[in-house]
Every structure is written in C-alpha cells, then in structure tokens.
Amino acid sequence: MSDKVRETSSKAAMKELKEEYLRMLEESFQNTTEIKKGDVVEAPIVSISDQYLILNLGGKFDAYAEIGEFSDEKGVLQYAVGDTLKGYVVDKNDQGYVVGKSLTKQYVDKQSILDAFEKKIPVQGKIYSPTKGGFNVDILGARAFCPFSQVSLRPAEDSSVFIGKTLDFIVIECSENCRRIVVSHRQLAEAQEQETKAAALKKLNVGDVVKGVVMRMTTFGAFIDLGGIEGLMHVSEISWQHVVKPQDELKVGQELEVKILEIKGDKIALSLKALQENPFVSAMSELHEGDTINCRILRLHNFGAFAELKPGVEGLIPISEMSRNRNIAHPREVLKEGTYVQVQILRIDPDTRKISLSLKALQEDPWDNIDELVKLETGFEGIVESSTNFGVFVTITEGVTGLLPRSRIRKTDNFKTGDQVTLMVTALDKDNRRITLDYTDRGPDEVIEARPRFEDNQAREPRGNRSDNYRGDSGSSQRRGGGGGRGRSDEEWRKYANQKVNPSEDNPFKDL
User: What burial class does residue 72 get, using C-beta atoms within 10 Å of its C-beta: 0-12 exposed, 13-18 middle, 19+ buried?
Assistant: First the structure.
C-alpha cells in the first residue's frame, strides 16, 4: 500500500472518531438540560471528599451532595465510592447540580413549596412550638401544621421531645397562597421503613442464623431487630424449658443469635430454642417406661399436672393417675406447684415427645389384700359415692368401692351422695375387680319388682378413675335371692364397664 493511500485512510478514521465524539457530547448536553429542580435522581458516587459526595449524572456537569445530609443519626456515612445515591435535585450552580434528601431554605422560595406539594418532594422543617392537635413547623420560611399523629411512626409519651427538632416532611395539604400548609413526617418515615425492610428481606432466608437485638417484649413474645426489619420470637420459642414471660429470660437491648423459622410477607418468625440441643432427645437414653423418678410439679390444670423430669423435659400426671384411694376433682387437692413428688413413667411417645406419669402406680393397691378388707355375707357401714342409672356406688373402705345394682334397690330408698348405709358384699370378682352389694336384711323370699330406669337428669356418671375397678361381665350372678334379676345385673355391669371417660379437649396429652 502506498503512503498516499495510507494517509487518506488515516484521515477518514480520525474524521469518523471526531464526529462520534461530537455526537456523544451533544447528547450529554441534551440529557443535562432535561434535569430540573425537584427531579428524583439515582446516580453512582464517583468520589468522596471531606464535605461532599460527587455524583456522575452522565452530563456536562457533575452533581454533589453534602455528606452530613446523607449520614445516619450517629453521623456515620453508610455510602462508598461506586454506590448509587438517591436524592432530589434542589439547585444548580457553576459547580453542577446540588442533590439533597429534601428541599431547604437555602435553595427555595414559597413557589417551591407548591412544587413540593405537587411533586411530593420532601422539605426540611423545624418544629418550634406546640398547638392544638399538633405542632407549628417552620417550612422554608412559612408556617406549617403537623398533627400529632403525623410527627413520628410511633407515638411518644411526652410530645415535648419533638420541640426544636429539624426533620424532613412531606406536604400533604397546601393552599394556593400557602397560608394553610399541612405536613407529615410519618409518611416519609413509613416509606423509608418499607424500603429498608425490602432491602433487609432480600438478605434473609428461612433457616438462616442471624444476629439480632431485643427491641421490646409482650406477653406472647419478643420483637427482635434484624437490621432494618423486626422479627417475632414467640414465648414458646425462647427455650425448651417452659417460659411464662419473655422478661424472665431476655432483656431489652440484649444481642443474640436466632434462627429464622418462617417468612410470610414482611413477618418473620424467629427461634432461640432451635439453636439449643433438644433435651428430650438426650433424656430418652436415661428415661424408660416403668422407671420411678423424682420430679417437680410445674403447672396444675383441671385434667392433670405437668411435672419437670429434667430441665426442658416435661411429663403429664393425668388426674385419673393421682390416687387409688379417693376421687380427685382437681390436682390442687393433692399437689402443689413447685413441690417434688415420686412418680412412675407409664408411657413415652418419642414421636409426639409426650410422657405420661402416675402417682397412683406407686401407691399401695388395696386389692392386694382384698380378702382381709372385704368379707362375704358380712354387714358393713359404707358411704354412698354416687347414683347412676344402673345402681348406687358405695365406699366399703378406702380405695374399695362396691355396687348395689339398680334392680336390687327398694322403692322406699332414695340414696344421696354422702349417705351412710349398712350393706353387705354378696359377690367378689378379683379378676375383674368388681364387688356386688345387697341389703343385710333382705329375706330369701323377698320379691324384686322390675323398676324403671333413673331419669337422665337424675343419673350421675361415675368417676373416670373408678372404671379400672369395674370391668368384665362375670360375678354379678353371685347375689342373694332374686335369681330372676341375674341377666339384668350382668347387663348393668357391662354398661358400666364399657363406659369411657373422654379426656378434656384442652389436654395436650389426651392422645396418650
């Protein structure tokens, strides 16, 4: 290639580069002229000086923002070179555009207040005095009104703490002559809180272990600040041990690590317990069905008592497992919270992590010596326990109950709970733990008339823990006289034996 051709080609390339440069420069001027006061800009930070953040708007002039305006409450700047800064164009001068978080007196007039109202641009104001229903606020040289409900996200006990504070506000109402101006700081704070929450949520996932600070506590749990968003730790997730109030285990301002259990929208469920070893797992190698163990009574309910076997491991003593010798209406009759008792472990369900306990199992069983306690055909003084539609239950001795069948009761008798009666044992079934009673003065030729059943409103159901002493079908035929009532008696016994006591619906151990 000749030198002349080479020179011509080089000149063409230079011309093309120059035209491209001029075109890009023209575009930059056009882009810059489109930026107006009040516009929202998001631009990268290209440098940081002692006082300013320098932004690149992509035009002829750079923009700058004061560091103090974009620092946090402690004066710490959270931005670095390369980060994107969001703000409002508040002025333009020889150095470029001025970007701020809100409009200030330094750059605007009253017309700017109207612009701020129409474009929803934040304005800076100072609260200088209280007034009826709110505060007087100096907004760019004009007086504005801020209602109490709009000054902060959460109400303060002492409203005077806001006097003298300089805050950013949004103009929510403005007349044409700016004589009536109503502003709100709360709306800005809510918007900022939502942005912060959204940014924080992007960093969180279910299963993460994160650091947090206890912010406040209620009866049902504690709110934990995770850095821009709060999560709730329910009282049941604080510890494996039973916690009555969060205040018993936590303190406001306490730093801790928690595990994220669930995220629904902006609601986050947290757990401290999930980071602790489950004591039930380790206890399974030490506890076995049939063991006798000393435990502490924690809580009493109408269906039973919860006892602590080991720290964080609880078992239930059902009310039916509290005594062999008496009917228990409520656990408080025999137990007291905080006391220690000896119990036997009846059942352990590793799947549901439930343990059933018994006091009764460690008590002497009167049926072991029943032949010494009960004598056939011998009168005794007993106490009426209850009346049912198939007979009257009578206490023979402590822990031993017999039944006077309904078919054997005389018309003239009307038994009531607590009545003292004289009867005798006519049949004793040790295998099924069943005792049949009759009158001591009944003659061998006395006729037993068929009698109607008790009305439903007169019948009284037997105690649940008595059902173990009355099961099976045999033995009821062992009675004196009245052989015609034998079949009826067997049927009555079966009805009683087949009765089941339904556990209370609020009993968490009802399935054991």
Answer: exposed
Taking residue 122's Cβ as centre, other Cβ atoms within 10 Å add up to 22
CA–CA separation, 8 and 87 (whole Å): 50
- Neighbouring-strand partners of residue 64: 54, 98
Q: Considering the domain 120-192, what is its CATH architecture?
A: Beta Barrel (2.40)
Q: Which of 19-23, 109-113, 148-152, 391-395 has the lowest mean pLDDT?
A: 19-23
CATH class as words, domain 279-362: mainly beta
How many CB atoms lie under 10 A from the CB of residue 210?
Answer: 18
- CA 371-377-383 angle, 5° bins: 80
Q: How many angstroms separate the CA atoms of 12 and 15, rounded?
A: 5
105-109, 362-366, 467-471 — most confident range: 362-366
How does 164-201 read in b/e, with b if 16+ C-beta sit within 10 Å? eeebbbbbbebeeebeebbbbbbebbeeeeeeebeebb
φ, ψ for residue 280, nearest 5 deg: -65, -40
Amino acid (1-letter code) at residue 154: R
Read off the pLDDT of each residue in 132-145 and give the average, rounded to a whole number: 86
For the 206-275 domain, the top CATH level (class) is mainly beta
Say which CATH architecture domain 35-101 belongs to: Beta Barrel (2.40)
How would you classify the pairing of strands 209-217 and 181-184? unpaired
Residue 185 has pLDDT above 90, yes or no: yes
CATH 2.40.50.140 fits 375-497, yes or no: yes
What region, left, alpha or beta, does residue 173 occupy, with left being phi > 0 and alpha being psi -120 to 50 degrees? Answer: beta
Is the pLDDT at 502 greater than 80, yes or no?
A: no
Q: How far is CA 288 from CA 38, 317, 325, in A?
A: 75, 16, 27
Residue 257, pLDDT > 70, answer yes
What are phi and psi for residue 66, nearest 5 degrees?
-75, 135
The four Cα atoms 138, 144, 148, 150 give a dihedral, to 10 degrees, of -100
CA distance 191 to 266: 14
The one-letter code for the residue type at 68 is G
Could you tell me if 58 and 50 are in contact, meaning their C-beta atoms sit under 8 angstroms apart?
no
Is the whole model's pTM more than 0.85, yes or no?
A: no
E strands, 191-339, in order: 209-217, 221-225, 230-234, 255-264, 267-271, 292-301, 304-310, 313-318
Alpha-helical regions (H) of 185-293: 186-201, 279-283
Which residue, chain included where needed, has tokens 């690590």? 257
CA distance 100 to 251: 39
Please list the residues that pair with 305 across neighbouring strands. Answer: 300, 317
